[in-house]
């Protein structure tokens, strides 16, 4: 057992306690390799058990009053969204059914920027449709060149600032191209590149944050979505940001929770914490550095119903149970402010809750949850 800040971590028997030091430290062993999402080392499987209005210019989210029951109007404080690669009229129709108000749209920088010229066509269309439909947008600034996961390229602070200035200026709501509500400084590439020193991320984060705020001051800006399950990696990332003096250059912390398809209700082992222990640990580290109120966004989370490399498949009913569990626990956390499911409107991708055959139980569970609790 170890106390990190105000967070009590009941470490599994296999966990080893790290030595004391000036930084916040993990009590769990460091994974010797950093591998892309879906390729983490296998973990012990645990059988599931059944379970019964404009934003403020300050970095922190607003808390404006909203109706206690869903009335079909999307408020920026709505916590629900999906991470998608296709944002079209089909997605809008699905969102209207569920009352979901945020979309995290993934597009690569190298699909927009090439040789000093810009092709904004795809993003222009997505922004126009989402704005017209009253759906809020979050866009990670990712994949500057080459593969996003196989030894991905990491931009310099100047490269990040340059593109961030371009995209935030174009979509600041004043330039005739619509509005993007939030940006992330990267996606998963800073975890996927094993040769990248996480101590170098802070300057990239700061450069992107300052560039976006200068061009679009009301937009929210967050860190990249750290995705590795290992708590020691999460600790290293946050120590690098907060310990390096970069905590003020993000409006929200950010993580992805796939956990190899395992049960989010329990600590499966020392490398795979429960959903609650993951966000509690992040909050505790932030608090140690004086940022205890820093919101957390979970910008990717999901469970596949088909086999995937490095990830255990679950039944549709179990997928629904897990969705309901993490959504409910996020809603009562007081610190997790948004949760983006992966995914929907993506054919038969294994994580989807609405494949081509029709909606899965998770779709209907989320629809009912949003209707009963449109904001947290």
Automatic annotation (TrEMBL):
Coiled-coil parts of chain: none
Top-rank lineage group of the source organism: Bacteria
SUPFAM superfamilies noted in UniProt: (Trans)glycosidases (SSF51445)
Ranges for region Disordered: 14-67
Protein name per the record: Asl1-like glycosyl hydrolase catalytic domain-containing protein
Taxonomic path: Bacteria, Bacillati, Chloroflexota, Ktedonobacteria, Ktedonobacterales
InterPro entries assigned to the protein according to its UniProt record, in alphabetical order: Asl1_glyco_hydro_catalytic, GH, Glycosyl_Hydrolase_39
UniProt GO MF annotations: hydrolase activity, hydrolyzing O-glycosyl compounds
Gene3D superfamilies for this protein: Glycosidases
């Amino acid at each position: 057992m170890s106390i990190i800040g105000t967070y009590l971590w009941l470490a599994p028997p296999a966990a080893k306690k790290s030595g004391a030091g000036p930084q916040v430290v993990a009590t769990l062993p460091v994974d010797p390799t950093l591998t892309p999402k879906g390729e983490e080392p296998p973990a012990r499987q645990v059988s599931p058990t059944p379970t019964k209005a404009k934003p403020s210019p300050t970095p922190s989210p607003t808390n404006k009053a909203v109706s206690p029951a869903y009335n079909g109007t999307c408020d920026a404080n709505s916590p629900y969204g999906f991470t998608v690669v296709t944002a079209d009229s089909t997605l809008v129709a699905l969102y209207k059914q569920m009352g979901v108000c945020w979309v995290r749209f993934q597009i690569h920088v190298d699909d927009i920027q090439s040789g000093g010229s810009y092709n904004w066509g795809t993003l222009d269309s997505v922004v126009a449709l989402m704005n017209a439909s009253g759906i809020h947008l979050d866009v990670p600034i990712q994949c500057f060149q080459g593969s996003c996961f196989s030894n991905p390229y990491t931009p310099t602070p100047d490269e990040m600032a340059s593109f961030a200035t371009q995209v935030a200026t174009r979509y600041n709501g004043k330039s005739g191209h619509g509005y993007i509500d939030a940006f992330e400084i990267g996606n998963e590439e800073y975890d996927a590149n094993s040769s990248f020193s996480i101590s170098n991320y802070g300057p990239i984060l700061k450069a992107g944050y300052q560039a976006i705020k200068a061009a679009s001051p009301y937009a929210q800006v967050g860190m990249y979505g750290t995705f590795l399950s290992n708590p020691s990696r999460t600790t290293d990332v946050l120590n690098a940001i907060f310990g390096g003096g970069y905590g003020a250059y993000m409006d929200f912390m950010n993580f992805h929770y796939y956990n190899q398809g395992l049960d989010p209700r329990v600590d499966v082992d020392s490398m795979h914490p429960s959903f609650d222990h993951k966000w509690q640990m992040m909050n505790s580290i932030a608090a140690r550095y004086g940022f205890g109120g820093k919101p957390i966004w979970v910008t990717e989370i999901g469970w596949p119903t088909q086999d995937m490399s490095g990830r255990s498949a679950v039944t549709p009913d179990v997928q629904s149970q897990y969705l309901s569990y993490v959504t409910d626990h996020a809603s009562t956390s007081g610190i997790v402010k948004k949760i983006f499911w992966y995914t929907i409107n993506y054919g038969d991708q294994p994580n989807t809750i609405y494949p081509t055959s029709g909606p899965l139980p998770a779709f209907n569970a989320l629809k009912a949850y949003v209707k009963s609790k449109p904001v947290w």
